[in-house]
Automatic annotation (TrEMBL):
Protein name: ECF transporter S component
Transmembrane stretches, start-end: 16-36, 42-64, 100-118, 125-147, 153-179
Keyword Endoplasmic reticulum appears in the UniProt entry: no
Signal sequence interval, chain numbering: none
One Pfam family hit: ABC_cobalt
Lineage, top ranks: Bacteria, Bacillati, Actinomycetota, Actinomycetes, Micrococcales
Record's keyword terms, sorted: Membrane, Transmembrane, Transmembrane helix
Length: 200
């Protein structure tokens, strides 16, 4: 029993390289978040006839958590990366203001829960999709509270469903393919995700 505990601890403990790479990843995706936010007014116009469908665009703000979790593979990685990315987006400037930090926290917790459901032992396509689905759910519910509270329930429900679909496709599938591509280049050789490219 003591041997199994001793083996499990290093697997979940953070190394300096984990912190550095997670921070760099968060900053890089934060710039993407900023660009994604800049395009949102266009999406607003395009979805004016039925605003809830804009939830299909929301998955772009969920990539940091899912991708960070897939690469770092440590408890807290998804939340850390999502928070860093949100902070960078806020500092660069967005019409959402610093409420992006609240969103980043909530969405990071959602992605974290997706990985926790598998006890941080699997990081395959199914896990990525589930993490994307859960964080999409968290995004949809939180944004209905923060921004869409005047909508009818059917609209709010439609937005949540759209955000979950977006979470699966953009945050889940896209992050999985991105992590796999990075692993195959050897850029992640210091991580378990890089040493098991076939798994992810």
């Amino acid at each position: 029993m003591s041997d199994s505990v001793a083996v499990a601890k290093p697997r979940h403990s953070w190394r300096v390289v984990d912190i550095v790479v997670a921070a760099v990843l968060g900053v890089a995706v934060g710039v993407v978040f900023w660009g994604w936010s800049a395009l949102y007014p266009v999406i607003g116009v395009a979805t004016a006839a039925f605003p809830p469908i804009a939830g299909l665009y929301a998955g772009g703000w969920l990539i940091a958590g899912v991708l960070g979790g897939l690469i770092i593979r440590k408890p807290g990685a998804a939340l850390f990366c999502e928070l860093i990315a949100a902070a960078v987006e806020g500092v660069l400037g967005t019409h959402f203001g610093m409420t992006v930090l609240i969103s980043g926290f909530v969405q990071g917790v959602g992605a974290e829960l997706g990985f926790a459901l598998f006890r941080y032992r699997k990081f395959n396509l199914l896990v990525a999709v589930v993490a994307g689905l859960v964080t999409g759910l968290f995004l949809g519910v939180s944004e209905n509270i923060l921004y869409n509270n005047q909508w009818a329930f059917v609209w709010q429900l439609s937005y949540v469903v759209a955000a979950m679909v977006s979470g699966v496709v953009i945050a889940g599938l896209l992050s999985w393919f991105a992590a796999r591509a990075l692993a195959k280049t050897g850029a992640l050789s210091a991580f378990a995700s890089g040493r098991s490219a076939k798994e992810i």
